[in-house]
Design brief:
229 residues, alpha/beta
């Protein structure tokens, strides 16, 4: 993979992030606008420093396919520790009496989703998770960060190590990631999961890849069939 290609992907990635962070700031859509639909319920979990509105293009696409899509507004910009964030997601599942849920998570959101699936009292409410560009093994860049929030993504972080030991649930996770991720140089491959490596680059721009919606649709069809059975 050439340095030029990586540079192009990196540039496009940050351009995508900049545009959608700005749109998220200006967006006044209410989360309840996406609760309708007869499909499998979906709960979206954003990454660090992201509000749910950053993922709104993906939310709209899933809602248009007939899924009620929920977000966890109390996460705000998702700077709190993974275990506390997982409890907020669990509280939302209980409060809205959601079952057979598919979690759709970006980056740190994948750690939150796996924490809920592994340790949460409401884990039985979750059918599976599609995680996009999630640092399941941490990122070696974390040690270079000034912010404690970002340093928590170290491969030696206690939470990341604890989640790595929980392998039984990996079969219920689909991990979608780019061939080159400027934030997660080790990639997002997860042993025992369905791993989908996209021949593109980016940490944010991959959210717009049609394969993400396709993998959610595939899991939703499986979940629906399982629930009916």
């Amino acid at each position: 993979m050439s340095l030029l290609r990586r540079w192009v992907w990196w540039t496009l990635d940050y351009a995508y992030a900049g545009v959608w962070q700005a749109r998220a700031f200006l967006n006044r859509t209410r989360p309840s606008a996406f609760w309708t639909g007869g499909g499998v319920p979906i709960v979206v979990i954003p990454g660090v420093y992201e509000t749910w509105k950053f993922l709104q293009p993906l939310i709209v696409a899933l809602h248009e396919r007939g899924h009620p899509v929920h977000v966890v507004d109390p996460l705000q910009n998702n700077r709190i520790p993974v275990d506390r964030a997982a409890r907020l997601v669990e509280q939302h599942l209980v409060a809205h009496d959601l079952h057979d849920v598919i979690l759709v998570a970006h980056s740190k959101g994948g750690l939150i989703g796996k924490h809920l699936m592994a340790f949460g009292a409401g884990a039985a409410r979750v059918r599976g998770m599609v995680a996009v560009a999630s640092p399941f093994g941490g990122s070696r860049y974390a040690a270079l960060m000034v912010s404690a929030t970002l340093r928590s993504f170290s491969p030696r972080n206690a939470t990341i190590l604890a989640l790595a030991r929980e392998t039984a649930i990996n079969a219920r996770i689909t991990s979608v990631y780019a061939a080159f991720d400027p934030h997660i140089p080790g990639g997002s491959e997860l042993a025992g999961a369905k791993n989908v490596r996209l021949e593109t680059g980016g940490h944010f721009r991959v959210l717009a890849h049609p394969r993400v919606v396709g993998e959610v649709a595939a899991m939703a069809e499986h979940a629906h069939g399982h629930a009916a059975h």
